[in-house]
Amino acid sequence: MTTIDPATPCDLCSLPVGIKPFSLTTAEKTILFCCEGCKGIYQMLHQINETPAPSQDN
Ligand SMILES: [Zn+2]
Q1: In a domain, 57, yes or no
Q2: Is residue 1 in a domain?
Q3: Rounded to an integer, what distance in angstroms lies between the CA atom of residue 40 and that of residue 52?
Q4: Distance from the CA of 10 to the center of ligand 1, in angstroms?
Q5: Domain total for the chain?
Q6: pTM score > 0.90 for this model?
Q7: Residue 50 CA, ligand 1 centroid: distance in Å
Q8: HEC string of 2-36?
Q9: How far, in Å, from the CA of 31 to the mean position of ligand 1?
Q10: Could you report how far apart the first and last alpha carbons of the chain are, in Å?
């Protein structure tokens, strides 16, 4: 099992993510955020699609 350290810094604002972090799983790694807002901003900045859908029309 994966235990997340509550003191892990948010990837956007560097505040501790706490006991219920917002995680964003990319193809490369899992990123942790302190709040939904930070996660959303990070996604926007880096144009990350969570759980990319392979069946998406192209
Ligand atoms: Zn944050």
Answers
A1: no
A2: yes
A3: 16
A4: 5
A5: 1
A6: no
A7: 18
A8: CCCCCCCECCCCCCECCCCCEEEECCCCEEEECCH
A9: 11
A10: 36
